[in-house]
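Per your request, structure below.
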């Protein structure tokens, strides 16, 4: 299914209104307009920090102070960030009964802050720290100060409760995400380069289960032109805003339905 000359926003809105049970899969691109850098590309985190040195479980255990330098930057930036129009737009689509869940690779908590109620955090959340020895958990704000390596009461190092390379996806999040992918009518993939496994399998699972896959991204990705049925080029906030406008104009979706 392709846009075939139809205006793509209209086509995406028609799919969303017709099938209703849509799920969103989001990546770092949706938070760029909140001032949080993405990972890949010239302005991304991985241009500054080599992920093999800074984002693996092995590197964290070997050199926690070094890795905490990078993590501290993320905690500070995310701590000041507020949801942008794209996060708020997804919450509106949930309230309209169009989107039923958001699966996010992001660890910034901005979907919840925007009002989305069903959020599956595939890579964890920076809001929480976990002890690498006794697994005790703490709110990040209670234990973290810039420049320090936070410690547990047992004396061991605390790690943000996020998935580093070499760690498994939290099993419940993975189960829930795959179930959403298998059963949704439309998967809207927003702001991800779809290069990290297993998150990048979610669009394929949805597609093989019969869902339409709609991509929102200003750039081409590995999904464009194959897994994605429709590519809406542009920033997440602009495209989501236009979809909401279109859905509200059409009388087949009633807010709050
Ligand atoms: P990437 O940095 O790989 O990709 C971000 C995507 O967002 C790119 O395709 C951009 O074109 C797009 N983008 C940029 N600005 C945008 C905007 N305003 N609106 C919409 N899209 C925009 O980030 P992810 O795909 O999320 O994992 O990265 C996946 C994982 O790789 C992360 O969760 C993280 C990272 O390593 C772990 O740390 C385990």
């Amino acid at each position: 299914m392709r846009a075939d000359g139809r205006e793509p926003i209209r086509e995406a809105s028609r799919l969303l209104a017709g099938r209703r049970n849509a799920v969103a899969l989001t990546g770092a691109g949706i938070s760029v307009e909140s001032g949080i850098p993405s990972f890949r590309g010239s302005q991304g985190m991985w241009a500054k920090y080599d992920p093999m040195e800074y984002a693996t479980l092995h590197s964290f255990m070997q050199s926690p102070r070094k890795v905490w330098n990078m993590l501290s930057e993320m905690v500070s930036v995310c701590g000041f960030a507020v949801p942008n129009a794209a996060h708020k737009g997804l919450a509106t689509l949930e309230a309209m009964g169009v989107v039923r869940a958001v699966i996010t690779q992001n660890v910034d908590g901005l979907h919840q802050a925007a009002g989305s109620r069903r959020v599956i955090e595939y890579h964890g959340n920076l809001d929480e720290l976990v002890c690498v020895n006794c697994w005790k958990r703490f709110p990040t704000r209670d234990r973290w100060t810039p420049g320090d390596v936070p410690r547990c009461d047992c004396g061991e190092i605390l790690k943000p409760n996020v998935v580093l390379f070499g760690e498994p996806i939290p099993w419940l999040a993975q189960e829930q995400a795959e179930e959403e992918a298998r059963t949704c009518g439309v998967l809207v993939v927003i702001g991800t380069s779809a290069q990290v496994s297993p998150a990048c399998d979610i669009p394929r699972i949805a597609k093989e289960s019969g869902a339409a896959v709609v991509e929102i991204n200003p750039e081409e990705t590995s999904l464009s032109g194959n897994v994605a049925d429709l590519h809406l080029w542009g920033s997440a906030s602009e495209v989501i805003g236009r979809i909401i406008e279109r859905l509200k104009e059409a009388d087949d979706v009633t807010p709050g339905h």
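Confidence is low (pLDDT under 50) at residues 1-5.

Regards,
D.
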